[in-house]
Amino acid sequence: MLIKKSSDVPSSEITSKSNYLNRRKFITGALATGAAIAGGLYLRNTDSPEHGSVEASGNGGQKLTGIVKSQYSTTEKPTSFKDITNYNNYYEFSTDKYRPAGLSANFKTRPWTVAIDGMVKKPTTLDIDSVLKLAALEERVYRHRCVEGWSMVIPWVGFPLSALIKKADPLPSAKFVAFQTILAPDQMPNQKADVLQWPYVEGLRMDEAMHPLTILAVGLYDEVLPNVDGAPLRLVVPWKYGFKGIKAIVKVSFTDKMPPTTWNIMASSEYGFYSNVNPTVDHPRWSQATERRIGDSLFAAKHPTLMFNGYGDQVASLYSGMDLRKNF
Amino acid sequence: MIKVPDKAVRGLKAPVFLLCLAPLALLVWKAFQQDLGANPVDVITRSTGKWTLVFLLTTLAVTPLRKLLAMPWLVRFRRMLGLFAFFYGCLHLTTYVWLDKFFDVHAMLHDIAKRKFITAGMTGWLLMLPLAITSTTGWIRRLGGKRWQQLHRLIYFSALAGVVHFIWLVKADLRRPLAYGSVLAVLLLYRFFLWGTTRFKSRARAGMPAVSATET
């Protein structure tokens, strides 16, 4: 019985002990410390806490009700709430990915209006609370692929952008939808700095915007969208790189010309208008063939990146006949 | 001139050594606390990269500081600081080779050839390699002081490659890499002016062609 017991000891426990000893030794020399860091990181991942650990991050976690499930959701395991709300790019607050969580905590999402203008029958301004009632709220568990090579699985709550477009009633001549983030330098410290051209702007072709996968997100994990993820209203286009998902939207315009987009203005050779996830077209500074899934073990292999982020069956037809190397 | 007894300098070496290990100790501590955030590989990469640059610049600051502050004994810490730059550079490279590329040689060669910020970073590390190897007293003797010193001027180019590596990798907001660049510029300009004045003085004194500055 003794033998059986010893074999029952999980290997992670054995590792942790030896690494604990390593840790003690680290001051004796640099190499020992190097071993300890690897060990410590291994430990972090073998003993990592359960996903779904919740930490307050603006908005105080108000529950959303009446959320319906969606056929478009992936069955992959969602990234933890903590990671989704503590690691992202929100350059209006900081170019660091860990700091926006704290810096956005007091961001004001009420009162909030969304202006609808450009090529529409009747320009109007919608209050955010009426925007929230445009359609039934759905849970959409989507893969999220950042252009920097990391990815998450995010249980968004939102509704199809098409519902807002129908409400806006664009003219038949409108071919593109343009979005704009709020300009609030008093609340968004980096808007005082010359980091990007403010306010952040993004755009979609009309057929992309009308696609059922394209949503406006207002929640996350069945709760009101945390400020750090773009409250009160953000765009989610799961087959495109994350930066297309413009946050804190205050304006939606309809136009017949391809609208300017912030990262394209910043570096047009690196970020195209379409920015569809495409493992065969590298970013000039990094490969797009693989991605690191946030929450994976430190030593886990990266995941292969899928064409259109795995949504090719639904969206590839939007781009038939287009050279996606040119139209990256 | 601030005189410090030999014994005191030696006594200082252990604390300085431990202080140089502090950034790594902090990383290890955070790893044990499971406090490296959502993307630990990214945190390790950035931290080790940052400290490589910091130690390169600190090493380059030794000569100006010891002259300006008249503290010649500072030079006795230079080798240790330089080797710590190499040490953090090795950790940085290891993070890339192991945790980013998982020893995929093909992918790494592709990266080095295609991505200029990787090319710059690899250049910076490679330039440190001969300096680390020839950092021993034995090698100084073998090469002779003058040749050794000439070889070790490679550190200028290593630091430059490091700053360029940083500039090329950021997507936007060049403030941080340019801050490192400015410090490097000051440290290199100091040497340039020193070289200029030494040349001028020696020529004036001896009426002879220029002799290059012997200080690194």
Q: Would you kindly provide a written description of the structure presented here, covering whatever features stand out?
A:
The complex is a heterodimer of chains A (328) and B (216). With 328 residues, chain A is α+β, with helices and mostly antiparallel strands. Chain A has two domains: 2-46, no CATH class; 59-319, Alpha-Beta Complex (Sulfite Oxidase, Chain A, domain 2). Chain A has ten helices and twelve strands. Chain A has helices at 2-8, 11-25, 30-46, 81-84, 100-103, 128-131, 161-168, 206-210, 262-266, 312-315, and strands at 113-118, 124-127, 138-145, 150-160, 176-181, 201-205, 215-220, 223-224, 234-236, 249-255, 290-293, 303-304. In chain A, the strands form two sheets. In chain A, strands 3, 4, 7, 8, 9, 11 and 12 form a seven-stranded mixed sheet that branches. Chain A has a five-stranded mixed sheet with strand order 2-1-10-5-6. In chain A, α2 (11-25) runs antiparallel to α3 (30-46). Mean pLDDT of chain A is 86; it is low at 1-57. By secondary structure, chain B is mostly helical. Chain B has one domain. Helices cover 79% and strands 0% of the residues of chain B. In chain B, α2 runs antiparallel to α3 (78-100) and α5 (116-133) packs antiparallel against α8 (154-169). The A-B interface holds A 23, 26-27, 30, 33-34, 36-37, 40-41, 43-44, 47-49, 82-83, 86-87, 91, 95, 97-98, 148, 150, 193, 195-196, 266-267, 270, 282, 284-287, 292, 294-295, 298-299, 301-302 and B 18, 21, 24-25, 27-28, 31-32, 34, 36-42, 44, 87, 91, 94, 99, 102, 107, 110-111, 114-117, 168-173, 175.
